[in-house]
Amino acid sequence: MSRQIDSFEALLAPMSVAEFMAEYRGRKPLHIQGGGDKFAGVMGWDLLTRLINQSSIWSAASMQLVLDGKRVDPKDFCTPAIGRDKATLPIPDLDRVRGWLQRGASLLLNDIDQLSPGLKAAAAALEAGLGGKVQGNLYCSWQAHQGFGSHYDTHEVFAVHVAGEKTWRLYERHFQDPIAHAAFQIKDDAFHARHKGRLTAEVTLKPGDLLYIPRGWYHDALATSEATIHVAYGITCPIGLDLFSLLFERAVQEPRFRAAVPDPDADGGTATAEHLATLGDTLATLVREPAVVEKFAAFMRGYRYPRADLRLPDDAVERRWRRATAGLRLAQQNGAWVLTDGRQRAPIPPGTDKPIGWILEHESFAERDFAAAFPALAENDRRGLLASLEKMAVIALG
Questions:
Q1: Most exposed among 16, 90, 337, 373, judged by the fewest C-beta atoms under 10 Å?
Q2: What are phi and psi of 61, to 5 degrees?
Q3: Alpha-carbon gap, residue 282 to 301, rounded angstroms
């Protein structure tokens, strides 16, 4: 079984997270060569075949076809049918899809980041590493047929290349940090042609490679081998504009924000201007309140999609753990945390001192209580830690 990408470090390897954050994140594109099997646990031809043949999970929104830069009209490859939610939807007809693929159409599968453990793990790794919401789309393209023309995205892109070879052309950045707002959602090809700027780089992705593209950076791509697959993970992180929603709720509590604004025509607008200035000063005060700062920090910490797994039959019965060995404690040795009984010492993974400390403080605990105590700890990491401690006879089921 291919290894999953279970951390941001693994996604970026061999580059360090520190170098990426300091030199590239939000600043310029980056191509990382990773080796043929690096992303084999994320996607491959067998998995793609299994997913696409589950035709009832797809619709004209989640499956699209693009031929030489133009989207194929859904009526040309879909048939109205009753979906799993009992609503009538345009469902892809795989016989007609096959015909379009044989003509060179690129296959686009939207929102696939929850459809397999490997896809989900890579998305969760990005969310944990950068603190944002991640959505994944798959692109399957054929040699010499371009999917999309030159464009920029309003989210950061991590293109995970898993099959074939594709050449990406990178141009210049027109908008600084565009967002999903009408001001930046421009579909005019002539606009893009005028503003994409000069060609700055041309890179060919091979299986195991990663391409990072910041928001607003123009790019296009063309398959240079017979068949290619890449998964484009897009991440959206909290920005300053998100603060306005929180401030609105806080400002509702202030009488001056609920008061009528003076008539702008009464005295040449002086009273209106002064009133607005007062509101601005009040906002500057509110945004510095510790409660507002902490609430926004909590919003940022929770800004990711739920990616819990349900594992049956175990999850149908509440699992409880008990401490199996008495007298254990955490101690520091040469700047690192170790688990000791006073005679022997065992190193623990970096960053697990607080969860393990919590476990040592409890004679017994339910797994759901442990999860609630450490909500930022990913489910796979939590289960892995419990399994490791069970092997070490620190805890036991029951």
A1: 16
A2: -85, -40
A3: 26
Instruction: Indicate the pTM of the whole model.
Output: 0.80
Backbone torsions φ then ψ of 391, nearest 5 degrees: -65, -30
DSSP code for 157: E
Model confidence pLDDT, tens digit, residues 166-180: 999 999 998 999 999
Mean per-residue pLDDT of the chain: 92
Residues 6 or more apart whose CB falls under 8 angstroms from that of 5 comprise: 11, 38, 39, 41, 42, 118, 121, 122, 125
Chain centroid to Cα 175, Å, comes to: 22
Q: Topology of domain 8-236, per CATH?
A: Jelly Rolls (2.60.120)
Nearest to 108 by CA among 97, 121, 123, 120: 97
**Domain range annotation of the chain:** 8-236, 242-301, 314-397
- Yes or no: say if 170 and 220 are a contact pair by the CB < 8 Å rule: no
Q: Which residues pair with 323 in a beta bridge?
A: 395
The Cα–Cα gap between 187 and 296 comes to 33
CB atoms within 10 A of CB 205: 25
